[in-house]
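Let us work through a complete example step by step.
Step 1: write down the sequence.
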Amino acid sequence: MDSPSKLRLFEQLMMPHLDAAYNLARWLTRNEHDAEDIVQEAYLRAFRFFGSFHGGDGKSWLLAVVRNTCLTWRRGENSMAIVTFDEAAHSSAAENSSVETALVAQAASGSVRNCIDALPAEFREVIIMRELEEMPYRDIAAVTSLPIGTVMSRLARARRRLRDCVAARMNRTKGAAQ
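Step 2: predict the structure and record it as tokens.
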């Protein structure tokens, strides 16, 4: 395939998944700037190895490249920088909501986001792919190179940890308000 047609096909199949790629990288790195760098590197790698893509789900193939790029990046880092998530910049309250409703929604969203961020990487990646990117179990298994049973087990444990974490945070919030 000549280079211009390869580029057109790559753009057609992979560019629609740019937000999903950034989302996964952001959650895995816990840093927006590192995520941007990783997504850029992942897209370069994906284009370089586009010949190995033999059809199928482009999103799963691309997210596997993003995940592998994150893993390579993580091995190269001596320590991961943990950046506090900026709630004001990343939360969205309905415009017609009352101020109180907006604050409660923002607090709940912040708790969930902070709890996801606190998950170990192996749980965080599967919960992001399943719950935020709405990927099927088989695609997550393909991206992570794990058996589908392991994916399901990790999701169950991740969901349990999230539920417990959010409940604990909400109980603390209620206790502090009383």
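Step 3: interpret the result. DSSP finds nine helices and no strands in the chain.
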